[in-house]
Amino acid sequence: MSQRSGKPVTRQDTTSDSHMDETETNISKNILEKMDKQHSDFLRRLEEKFNTFSSQFTEQLLSVRTEVDTTKKQVSELEYKIDDLEQYTRRNNLRIFGVTEERNENKDVKLKQLFESKLGIKINTVDIDRSHRVGKNVGPRPRAIIVKFVSYRVRQQIFNNKKRLKGTEFTIKEDLTKNRSEVLAAASEKFGRQQVWSIDGRIMVSTGGKKFAFTRRSEIDK
């Protein structure tokens, strides 16, 4: 018979201690099981919330991307329409290269004399709405002149006879927008300069026995 605190330990005391140990073990086990269940429930709810958030975020992201793509297309179409309108406003214009540049010059008179002497076309100064030099004055090379004619008919008469200037220091080109100029440059690089020209702002290309018209850079890159 054992003793506890100086008192004899009976069988009943031993049984009581065993029951207490078992009870403590069961309580601890229950607590751990409850904590484990709560932890599992917490992780499950967290995962559900994450999946819901992820799904909503993915849907919103796809929606935003769709809206961005739509907006880009709308902006692109708007830019094209603006460029088309700007090119139309230049339909009476031509760019003349090679005309000597002087101070206090009368550009209208110079152009009138050029057209008559080199193209054999007589026009009046009243056929010219206005004319001015463009670009920076660098070196001895004269800057180009943009001339706007009063009528498209006179403009076309001059433009259709520009080949007569071949072999001279003069050149006549259409007055293209920045976008059309880039399309012309891209087409010339891809198909060759001799196969590319412009008509009324459209960039024309002759290749494979066929002729094509371009107004957008993306069309050239296809």
If you had to describe this structure to a student in words, what would you say it looks like?
InterPro entries: Transposase_22. Residues 1-13 have a biased composition (Polar residues). The protein is an alpha+beta fold and 222 residues long. It folds into three domains: 11-78; 91-175, L1 transposable element, RRM domain (Alpha-Beta Plaits); 176-222, no CATH class. The protein contains five helices and nine strands; from the N terminus they run ββαβαββαβαβββα. The chain is rod-shaped. The model has no long low-confidence stretch (mean pLDDT 87).
Summarize the structure.
Helix content is 54%, strand content 18%.
Tags for this entry?
222 residues; Alpha-Beta Plaits; three-stranded antiparallel β-sheet; 5 helices; 18% strand; Transposase_22
Which geometry do the CA atoms define? rod-shaped
Q: Which spans have pLDDT < 50 for at least 5 consecutive residues?
A: none
Rg of Cα set: 43 Å
Full CATH superfamily name of the largest domain:
L1 transposable element, RRM domain
Structurally, how many domains make up the residues? 3
CATH topology category name of the largest domain: Alpha-Beta Plaits
- How many helices? The count is 5
Could you describe the largest sheet, including whether it forms a barrel? Answer: 4 strands, antiparallel
CATH architecture of the largest domain: 2-Layer Sandwich
Structure class: alpha+beta
